[in-house]
Input
Amino acid sequence: MGTVHDRPTWADTPRRTPVGAVAAPPAPHRIHPALQIAAMLVVAGAVPVQRSVWVAGSLAGLTIAAVVVVCVLALRRFGDRAWGWFGPVAAGMVAAWAVAGPQLSFWTGAGLVLAAWGSGTPPPRLPVAIPPPVTLAPLAVGALFAMLRSRSEFGWRLPVLFVVLGVATILVLTRWPDLPHTIGRLVAGWLSAVLFGALGLFVIVLPAAVRALIPGRWRRRGDRSGWSGIVRSSHTPDRPWSPEVTERRAGSWPRTAAIVGAATAVVVLAGVLVTRADDPAPPVAAPPPGPAPTTATTAPAPVAPPDPAAVTMTTTPNPPAYADADWWQRYAGDMQYSSMWLDHFREAGFTKIKDGTTTYMTLQDGGRTTWRPPPCDCRRVTLWFYGSATGMGVGQRDDFTVASQLAQRAWRDGIAVDVVNRAMPGTQHWAQANHFAWDLVNREAPDVAVFYTGVTDLNAAKWLDEQRMGDRNWPIDTMTAGFMSSEPIVATVRQSTRGDATQPPNPPGVQLRPPVTVPQLGPEGIGRLTAERLNRTIPMGADLADRYDVRAFWFWEPMRVSRPPVEGEAVEEGDDDLRRMVATARAGLDPRIVDLGDTFVGVPRPLYFDFHFNEEGASLVADAIYEQVGPALRAAASG
Output
């Protein structure tokens, strides 16, 4: 009688044969070549391609993808030789380094090594065991999960975890190749017991109980019990319901594919559930009670403290920069609600904010409400403050923005300064100067004007480089351009203007010229482009200020990468390139621009929650600005 295999392994693909048949010698398990290549491509290319698209653009992502395909095919063809194994890995790393830098080179090399090793091709001439091919399944799932989540708050940590778990998976399954089957058999045994117990309750126990209640005269003769006869199998007396014991032999690819596919599906589903549990969407708050949005001619009515129970706050924890801010949850919930449902912040157009109120923010006449000094007999000085979202005060309450704390700092010196906050999200300096020009022809000129910029001008240069446009001789509103070029908006506009009509042939002489593209600039080139475009726009505001006798000041704002990493602030891939951009831009600034880039250096506490800083950061910036504008404010107050 043939031997019964009690613990088949992944190397012995199961196929049932009658008991007593002579078992054929087990054959090594083979994965279908197409599936094996596809899994290798996922393991080797998922993370590098996605991250190269994020860091260096779509062209770099396509290049990395092509490199990975060539290297995987080379490993499949020549992996049994030393040069055929190490050569493709080294070539892939060199190509990735040339296209997207050293970090992408590491991810590409790690992915290729895991793909080759997990497919059963260890490095030649090295004492490394061959893992079972099933290793590719968890590796592929891990690579996909790392790809999907690597742009989130995990940053570079999740790909590193993928590499560590990938190596651990290979080592474990190489040492215990039947571990997946053992785990699966245990789970299947418990699951079978539970399901059989539930089935027996309805199929056996309940019918038997009912039959026991039937009077004896209604039973058939010879039926001395309510149980149907069950013939016990002599070879499994403890499991009379089990099928006849069979012999297992190798060679059934579809069965193994089904097992591996089912296990992979379970892991994918678990990953999706973990992702959703890790990143819950904060609930939408109810409209905050209080007065309706104010108009330009009506002073905002005082807002009564809302009932905390009437508004659902966010469920995410406070960022480290707001660890002790008991108002943050309410602030974040208000911001989410007003942005989504009240359209307080727009992405397109010159005016990107609407008037309105939230618990901690008041927007009136196209600007943010600012703390004002009390009435006095002194001469009041007027200061117009221009900037982007960091100047408007995202992440700060009305009385704690840079503009408000600048007014408070001056009042402590006895100077009554009415600061008008005209900052608006997404505005580069050229847009701030345009806004300044419009205000000058519609209002009485101020004594002092402050232009606070940097982040948006840098983002504009990065956007031009990503589009391969270089230095164009027209201004670019990157927020509007990005919004209007997004696929849903483009599809909506085309649908509304063209309907479902098919485009007719172009009339003679009518054509759209393709955009002129230039090579990408690299970090230093983007930094130089930022400074050059910003410097050219300084006269736009300076000439107007001179004409209207306004003292004007320009400030380059501090950024997260302007100081060494601080615990509690994000560390993202691409920070090294961003530091090079910022350093190059700061080195090329117009002398009229005061560089505040080092304002936060030496502060050990987290200040940023993304690229916006908290109220402590606003206080430090206000102090730095006051050091420069204080003499002009005192002169205006005494004049």
